[in-house]
Fold:
Amino acid sequence: MADLRQKRVVLGITGGIAAYKAAELVRLLVMDGVDVQIVMTQAACGFITPATLQALSGKPVFTDMWDARVPDNMAHIELSRGSDLIAVAPATADFLAKLANGLADDLLSTLCIARECPLLVAPAMNRQMWDNKATQRNVAQLERDGVVILGPASGDQACGETGLGRMLEAQQIYDEINSHFAPKLLAGRHVLITAGPTFEPIDTVRGITNRSSGKMGYALARAALDAGAKVTLVSGPTSLDAPAAARVERVESASDMFDVVKKHAKAADIFIGVAAVADYRVEKTSTHKIKKTDKNMTLKLVPNPDILAYVAGLPRPPFCVGFAAESRQLHENADAKRRRKKVPLMVANLAQDAIGADDNEVTLLDDNGIHKLARAPKTVVARQLVAYIAKLFQGRKKKKA
Ligand code: CTP
Structure:
C-alpha cells in the first residue's frame, strides 16, 4: 500500500449500473486521506445521485462543462491540472469508444483529453458488449495510448447473464490505485511467497491443519506487487481472494507446497516463507474413511520437509525471509530459528497474537540487530516489510558486486 494522503484523484463515473460500487470506492479512498474530486456524466446521475457522492467525498460534484463554480468556466482544465490520477469507474462501452477516438463532448471526456496525469479505467458492461469487436478495438487502442485498463471481471451481470464484463469490486480498484502510487522498490524482481496453513490428510475426509488465515502472506503478495515485483503465491487452503496480478499456486499439504516451491525457487530473487507449514504429516493416510471403534487410536506422524531451510540451503539461494511464530521468548527463539535455518531476515511474531488476526506486531531480526515495528493492520505491516526487505536485498547485491 502506498501513502495516499495528499494525493488528488479525479474519479469519473459514467452511466452504468456498476456506478453504485463507486460510492464504496470513494469511501475507501477518502478514509485513506485522498482528495477525491468526483465528475459524473449525465447518464451516471440516472444511476446514483451526486448528493450521495458529495456526502461521501466531502466535496461538490461536477456534472457539467458549464459550471458557474469555476470562475473562468474551464472546469476541464482546472480539474485535470492539479490531479495525480484520473480513474473512471465504471467506464461504459460508449465512454471507452469516446476516449479511444479522442471525442470530448462532455466534462469527463474533455478533462480526460486535457489531462497530464495517468488515466485508469474500469470497464463495466454486458458480456456481449465487452466481446464486441468495436469495444475490443477501442480497448486495444486505449492500451496503446497508455491508458491502464482495470478488469473487467467475470461473473453474474445485472442483465441476468454471466460472463466477462462486470466491473471489478471497489476494493480491487482501490488496490490498483494504491499500487499505482507505491514506490517501485522491487521492479523487475521475482518474489516467491508461501502463505496460509497446510492440510495434512489423515483419511479421505479428515486431516490436520492450523488456524493460519493467510492474511499476512496475501498482504505481502499485494505489497510486493505494488512495489513492482512479479509475485508467485503458493497458498495453502484459505478463503482469501488473491491479488489478480499474482501467479497463484494452490496446494494442500506441506509436501505439495514443497514440490511447488522447488519448481519456482531457482528463478526467485526473494523467498518469503509466511506459511504455517505443518511440522508433521500422518505416515500412512487411509484411502477410506476410517471407521470408529471403541478402542484408542494412534496416528504415527513423520516430519515434513522444512521448506524455508531447503530454499536457504540452495547453492545460489534467493534472499530468504522467514516468519517465526513463537508463543514465548520471542526474540531468543526467533533468532535461534534464523541461525538454524540460515536466513538473513527472520520476522518474529507471537503465534497466539498474530494467527487469524487483522493486525500484527512484528520484530525483525537480521545481521543489523533487532528492529520492532509498531502494531498495525497486516496490510500496513506488509508494506513496511517489503520496503525493509528491498533495502536489505539491494545491500546484499551491492556487497556481492
Ligand atoms: N517453515 C517451512 N517449512 C516447515 C516449517 C516451517 O518453510 N516445515 C517456515 C515457515 O514458513 C516460517 C519459518 O519456517 O517462515 C518458521 O516457522 P515456524 O512454524 O515458526 O517454525 P518451525 O520451524 O516449524 O519450528 P517450531 O514449530 O518448533 O517453532
The chain has a mean pLDDT of 93. DSSP finds 14 helices and 21 strands in the chain. The chain has two domains: 8-181, 190-400. The radius of gyration is 25 Å.
